[in-house]
Design brief:
The protein contains 19 helices and eleven strands. The chain is α/β, with parallel strands linked by helices. β5, α5 and β6 form a beta-alpha-beta unit. The structure holds 6-phosphogluconic acid.
Amino acid sequence: DKYDIAVIGLSVMGRSLALNMADHGYRVAVYNRSKEVTEAMVKEYPHEGIQPYYSLEELTGALRRPRKIIMMIKAGAPVDAVIGNLAPLLEEGDILMDGGNSFFEDTRRRSKLLEQQGIRYYGVGISGGEEGARFGPSIMPGGDADAYGEIGPILRDISAKAEGEPCCTYIGPDGAGHYVKMVHNGIEYADMQLIAEAYLLLKYIGGFDNQRLSEIFGEWQSGELKSYLIGITADILKEPDDCTTGELVDYILDSAAQKGTGRWTSIESLKQGIDVSMITAACNARVMSNRLQEREKAFRLLKGPDVTAAGEPLSFIRMVREGLYAAKILAYAQGFSLLKDASKQYEWNLELGKIASIFRAGCIIQAVFLNDITAAFQENPNLENLLFHEFFRQGIEKNQGSLREIVTQGIKSGLPLPAMTNALAYLDAFRGAHVGANLIQAQRDCFGAHTYLRTDQEGSFHHDWGKKKED
Ligand code: 6PG
């Protein structure tokens, strides 16, 4: 009569996950720090598989061993606090999971700490928002490989299914699951920013109203851009406002919030030395959007060019679609190259094909496009960069002209397109025979004797710059 698993933390995500587990026949014990939340949950969402507990002692006492517990609480200090209270009640072999958006270095630290007590700690990335948690998220579990045998069946059962396969796979040891979730969110930021830029282009240069914009994004749902984010965008654009006339989107303040996972991705990329400029651009775009007062002042003081209307509407829409697709390929190429590097650096042995495959459903970045990425890594698990795969190479070849065209039109009209602009800069630096770094090395050697390498000779050199050649 013992319980299979416990969920600690019953706000939206925890509650939804507990109900999802109970729907799949698991006996779930639930607990929340404030009693009222637990009471409200079992009252509003009664389920025969769910049993509330009001102390951690009772909760841990009710679980079958090895105990399986998942924390669904706010990342940061609250996780350490719960671990502090819970660890003395756990025994060797028990499995403690953190299903929140914790920073992967915190997960690594906590894993090490709990390992000393024989507790198997798991950092579990979970994507899909409330709907996903309730009916099938994408799940990225990272921790002790042996323990996966215990928790894998439950996590797979409650996960989304893509072509019948669970969107859950063992990711790797210690912080690997949370790292992959972090990069998922970084890609999510870039994807959202790219869609916002396509919206700006269509609205201001294309001159389309919200109904038409909604139709355009809706049409894109039947092609290569088909994705959860494009789908909700089409719906959002036609959503009427409750308070006044027109669509709600026009009344929403032009300032985007963030909780930090995109920024972490950008910071980690700089530490690792991997270019994810589009994710960084997406973070900066949100940061800039928040400077409302300064932006208002700049709007009054700093003049730019007038918007030049698009030519033939249908070909402009096509160009934006193709340009968006090219930029999307580049964003995913950046994100997956960061994962590849992390795998090496942390010795996680990440299987990028499997990771792409669990992004096919359940998560925020789910898209048909993920089938192509999955196939590319299945074909070549060591693929260095997505752009080297024939499918994506061709995708870039076919669509980069449109990306260049819409970025040019946007810049001429004074529209901010940071993610699309960085997409092109990344592509051109990557494929460019010359990036100007010879001059940078010369400057470094000139002012600081930092030396340089030569194209025609081995070894490192220093030059006495400015000293005339002896005759
Ligand atoms: C998910 C999401 C989710 C994230 C939100 C908001 O995969 O379900 O990534 O974990 O919290 O998308 O993130 P920001 O507040 O940083 O935009």
